[in-house]
Design brief:
This protein has 14 helices and 14 strands. It starts with a helix and ends in a 10-residue tail after the last helix. The protein is globular, with a radius of gyration of 22 Å. It is of the alpha/beta class and about 425 residues long. The longest helix is centred in the C-terminal third of the chain and has 38 residues. The chain binds pyridoxal-5'-phosphate (PLP).
Length: about 425
């Protein structure tokens, strides 16, 4: 080692310190950074898991922060399929998809296309990669319109599109009229894409898809929907007996819509407990994205075990999915009923298993989180700027594997919490 090496190392460390110092000074992130560095429910190390019980340090908690809604992460057939596939194909395909597709990719796309009832589907590694690579391709030099409550990764994709020459427009949430107004203000001849969440990751509610689809079709715009939290949960033919619908084939089928002018994006990393994402789209667009969307050409593929767990997940979904969804809807209903009995406000008006409970005072988030942690309940803290200050609180996610006694424990702790802290009330204006 030369004598300059320690100096070079010191310089690099000093540069890294300056970067983290300037991040600290960006006050937008200050609340989140404070929680991240000090709160037991952020950046936590999970030492052990038994069902939906997790151990952090020596503290066991009931996990209500999991996105494994259907419990496929612990399903014996799905676990076994992963091992078989790894023995057959090795741990990782390694080729980018343009170079080589192990057969399971084709089987997934074939079965998925049938499940979601779309013209075709394309599997890529993650939704984040889909948004950041596909939104710019779809927008080109035209316009990208983004719903105000859309997921951060959609905004990232839209920002990249803007860097490539598209104009960027924010559309007020739950306001189809504002979408129509914005589309009318744009030149007819340019390409237009409107991006929105399906089942929203914070409110747990679905948008009025038929109305948004109607407006987009009328203005020759593409409706680009990210249903990360709806795929596997909601699906075709909802009734009062099957409130989530059947087959878990996502928001377009839930509303009985066609795929005209709609590109659906969803992933397997939530309800399917795997690692891959997909687009439902026309075959011509799929073929174009195979050469124009960087992840198909350049990114590493999903691990073999993930491909196998998706295929096994389809089988379990066909055999047991509707029963699992009924049980999930019932467990979610019990939590929502308790929230309603306590007179508390939640953003969730849908009955889907994503339940955010806002606080009256955003500054209470630290203490509320510590109380929940001490009482053995693990949730997602919804801190600013992840949500607007008026919606700072915590998000409970119910999964089919949360036991009845865990649901009772959660309901009991919510009751104690409402006595100690100032939570927003149902009658309170948002
Ligand atoms: C609505 C939504 N979109 C995208 C993502 C990111 O998905 P992925 O992990 O597949 O990149 C998430 C993950 O939390 C999400 O909730």
């Amino acid at each position: 080692m030369t004598s300059t090496a320690p100096n070079a190392l010191r310089n690099r460390e000093a540069a890294a310190d300056r970067v983290s110092e300037s991040a600290r000074l960006d006050s937008r992130w200050a609340d989140l950074e404070r929680l991240r560095s000090s709160h037991p429910m952020m950046d936590a190390v999970i030492e052990e898991q038994q069902g939906r019980r997790i151990r952090i340090g020596d503290h066991w908690l009931s996990d209500f922060a999991s996105c494994n809604y259907l419990g496929f992460d612990l399903h014996p057939e799905i676990i076994a399929a992963s091992e078989r596939a790894v023995r057959r194909w090795g741990t990782h395909p390694s080729w980018s998809r343009l170079l080589g597709n192990p057969r399971p990719y084709l089987e997934i796309e074939e079965q998925l296309t049938e499940l979601v009832g779309a013209p075709d589907t394309l599997v890529l590694p993650t939704i984040t990669l889909v948004h950041t690579s596909v939104i710019p391709v779809l927008a080109g030099q035209g316009a990208v319109l983004v719903d105000a409550q859309a997921h951060k990764t959609i905004y990232d994709g839209a920002t990249i599109a803007r860097g490539g020459g598209a104009s960027l427009h924010r559309v007020r949430a739950n306001d189809p009229g504002h979408l129509e107004e914005t589309l009318r203000s744009l030149p007819a001849e340019i390409s237009k894409v409107f991006c929105i969440d399906g089942v929203n990751s914070m409110t747990g509610n679905a948008p009025d898809l038929p109305e948004y689809a109607r407006i987009c079709r009328e203005h020759d715009a593409l409706l680009y929907v990210d249903d990360a939290h709806g795929f596997g949960i909601i699906g075709e033919s909802p009734t009062s007996g099957h409130p989530y619908g059947r087959r878990g084939n996502s928001i377009v089928k839930y509303f009985g819509e066609s795929y005209d002018n709609i590109v659906l994006v969803a992933g397997f990393s939530k309800a399917y407990s795997s690692l891959a994402a997909f687009l439902a789209l026309p075959t011509s667009l799929k073929n174009y994205l195979k050469v124009a969307a960087p992840p198909y050409l350049y990114s590493g593929p999903s691990p073999t075990g993930s491909l196998a767990t998706i295929l096994a997940g389809f089988k379990v979904n066909a055999a047991e999915g509707d029963q699992i969804r009924l049980s999930l809807a019932d467990k979610t209903r019990r939590v929502l009923d308790q929230i309603s009995r306590l007179g508390l406000r939640t953003l969730n008006t849908s009955g889907y298993p994503v339940i955010e409970i806002p606080l009256s005072h955003a500054d209470d988030i630290d203490a509320v989180g510590r109380f929940l942690f001490e009482r053995g309940i693990y949730v997602t803290l919804a801190a600013y700027p992840l949500v607007p200050k008026s919606e700072v609180g915590f998000r409970v996610q119910v999964t089919a594997l949360n036991s009845d006694s865990e649901i009772e424990q959660l309901n009991q702790v919510l009751s104690e919490l409402s006595e100690r802290f100032d939570l927003q009330h149902a009658s309170q204006p948002a």
